[in-house]
Amino acid sequence: MTYDLLIGQRAYSSWSLRGWLPFDAFDIPVRVHRTRLYSPEFASEVATFAGGRTVPAAKAPDGSRLTDSLAIAWHLAEAFPDHGLLPAPGPARAMAQSLICEMHTGFGALRQACPMNLLTGWAGFDPSPAVQADLARIEAIWQAALDQSSGPFLFGSYTLADAFFAPVAVRIAGYDLPVGDAAQAYVAAQLGHPPMRRWRAMAIAENRVLSGYDQPLDRMPYPAPAALPARAVPDGPSVNAACPYSGKPVTDFLELEGRIWGFCNPFCRDKTVADPAAWAKFMAMCTA
């Protein structure tokens, strides 16, 4: 019972991030397909995949087609009621649903002024009054949820509400936006969440740079958790004979702490080089 999901470039497509996180965070099997934002083939590839016009888009095992991140979220919450995608029925669930919908339709000033870019941070951004108003509203609704749950996520454990606010958290971090201590702690929880780390590692491994997302600002290192010092190397032999992800024979290699590890293709290697600790199967192999 595996879903199919179409996404755009991971470094920039915040909507794709919202669509993918529920699958990874709640261990729902999915095959990921990629298209390229702004490419000549984008419209036809999206339409062919699920009949829509944007990413993400998903196809359920029963043939249902979902052409919006919110539709994907509601479908998964109904299809997997025991996976904890939403808080238990009651006031907390109602608040979570409200926050999800407000994120889906709101905060246009923040989105417009601060496009998501997981490959770099930007220093010296001066938020307009409209962006400041969005940030104030975001802090208020985050605080209301955190006051009831005590964190680290909005409703204690990770839910769809956190998946939908992940692109907001990475914008706050990437543009060093002015928010208070509670919001900063929540942003740190988002950046340290293993699914978010895996998504960013894959964004780095994709190496698909869109210059249109560059800002007239000074670059700064993206404020992600520090990664272990892995590096790609041209040759083995490796400690392992099979890729930790696919089980296929190894062809590409990295070095970490003096040992060589192998993978079945460059992408498997490069996503691991980007953030080794984000990948449980790799770390389990390293520590076995």
> What is the tally of beta strands?
9
What is Rg?
19 Å
* CATH fold node name of the largest domain: Glutathione S-transferase Yfyf (Class Pi), Chain A, domain 2
Which architecture of the largest domain per CATH? Up-down Bundle
Fraction in helix: 40-55%
Number of helical regions: 11
Main sheet?
4 strands, mixed
End-to-end distance: 30 Å
Note poorly predicted spans. Answer: none
Organism: Lacimonas salitolerans
Domain GST N-terminal: 12-78
Protein name: Glutathione S-transferase
InterPro entries: Glutathione-S-Trfase_C_sf, Glutathione_S-Trfase_N, Thioredoxin-like_sf
Explain this structure to me?
It is built from eleven helices and nine strands. With 288 residues, the protein is of the alpha+beta class. It has three domains: 3-79, Glutaredoxin; 91-197, Glutathione S-transferase Yfyf (Class Pi), Chain A, domain 2 (Up-down Bundle); 231-287, no CATH class. Helix 1 (14-25) packs across helix 7 (160-174) and helix 7 (160-174) crosses helix 8 (181-192). The longest helix has 21 residues, at 129-149. The radius of gyration is 19 Å and the shape is globular. The relative contact order is 0.12.
